Amino acid sequence: MDDDYKNENNNENQPFEEQEGRQGQDNSSENERLNLTPEPEETQPEGPSGSVQKEEAAAVGAGVDASDCKQEPTSGGSKKTGKKKEKSGEKKKGFWGRLWSALKFIYMVITVPYFIMVVLFIVAFLAAVFSQDDLIDIEKGSRFARGGFNETVVIEGERDERIALIDVQNLITFQTSQQFKSRIKKIEKDDSVAAVIVRVTSPGGSVSASDQIHHYIQSFKEDTDIPVYSYMSGVAASGGYYLSAACDQIYAEPTTITGSIGVVLQSFNLETLMNEKLGVKNITVKSGEKKDWPKMFGELTQEQLDYVQNKLINPPYQRFVSIVAEGRDKLSKEQVLKLADGSIYYSEEAVNNGLIDGISYLEDLRDVIAEENGLENPEVFGFRETFSLDYLLRNTAEETGFFPRAEETLEKISRPELMYLWRLDN
């Protein structure tokens, strides 16, 4: 009886349930239509999460499981979400992220120069080790440390009988004389060399270095009987002319400045600067009165000037005059003394005064040498310094003046140096 009653009630309620189901489906479709309609961006600050919540609410009202109504975000929504994630990632760096980036940059700035130096060091080592040139100059030490030089053709010609060209450039120093010595010693062993040209482009320099190069030229001439010609280019004065006097003949370009036969010595007096400006007083303990003449501190007296003139200036000056008189057969010592007042001479004036033999360019000088020595179209070759550790350090430290040591700078200032040098003072 109970079962029959229940079945009857179910049959009676079935039409109402079907009607309610249809109404629920209609409501669900209406809710979906409303949810799929996009809203303005201003009303959707929550992004995709807001639409998902609405869909879940509609699904609950329709009696559908909320997990079945979740939709994948559109491509536009994913891009916005990605951008927000990137921004949030940048914000997470914050202070420590920026600090780490700064530290990495500082590390690179510090390490990159050292890395470059290591690379150059390796390149120099390989270049020195694997070089096969016969003219590499290694008198002492390793090839890598000391470097050397290679031949380079200056004027094309026959290689059977050649003319060697040695350059003396810029300020003449001890290093200049040693480089000259290395080159002329190699030429001495080369049987193909028929003549030598010493190209001078220098205002002079150290008295000792100029005299050393003069000596090397004379010794070469005595040992080989090979003629040596001086070729002056630009400025070849004082020490530049001193070493040229050892050559058999002297030629110069039309615009060359030469002469300046004499000696110069310069020193600094720092008494006013140290005492009055800096408040520093010099204390010198010496064994004799003249031990520190000329003084850097204290008044320079006439007695001190006379002492320096007689002891330091006159002896090298007299030697300069004698060297020129011996090297120039056209001039007597008295004629040289008239010219040796420190004056400079233009090329044409130097020819008229007997200081040089002619005016010529390098190509024309080659023809003159070929004619005088019976050569036919000789090749003119020079020397090019090879890359080495010595070359690298010298060009980056000495010539550029990077990182000079304080004691070296003070020593150069305080040390008076005799110079066969022509220069202009303010």
How would you name the CATH homologous superfamily of the domain at 148-384 and 409-421? 2-enoyl-CoA Hydratase, Chain A, domain 1
The first-to-last residue Cα distance is 137 Å
Query: How much is the radius of gyration in Å?
Result: 46 Å
Helix content: 40-55%
Q: How would you state the average pLDDT, rounded?
A: 75
> Remind me, CATH topology of the domain at 148-384 and 409-421?
2-enoyl-CoA Hydratase, Chain A, domain 1
Keywords: Hydrolase, Membrane, Protease, Serine protease, Transmembrane, Transmembrane helix
Protein name: Signal peptide peptidase SppA
EC number: 3.4.21.-
Domain Peptidase S49: 223-375
Describe this structure in words.
Strands 1, 2, 3, 5, 6, 7, 9, 10 and 11 form a 9-stranded mixed sheet that branches. The chain has helices at 2-36, 48-62, 75-130, 143-146, 174-188, 207-224, 239-244, 271-277, 302-327, 333-339, 347-352, 362-373, 389-398, 406-414, and strands at residues 149-155, 158-169, 193-202, 204-206, 228-237, 249-252, 257-259, 264-266, 344-346, 358-359, 378-385, 417-421. Helix 7 links the parallel strand 5 (228-237) and strand 6 (249-252). The chain has 14 helices and 12 strands. The radius of gyration is 46 Å and the shape is flat. With 426 residues, it is of the alpha/beta class. Helix content is 53%, strand content 16%. Helix 1 runs antiparallel to helix 2, helix 5 runs parallel beside helix 6 (207-224) and helix 9 (302-327) crosses helix 10 (333-339). The protein has a domain at 148-384 and 409-421: 2-enoyl-CoA Hydratase, Chain A, domain 1. InterPro entries: ClpP/crotonase-like_dom_sf, Pept_S49_SppA, Peptidase_S49, S49_SppA_C. It comes from Sedimentisphaera salicampi.
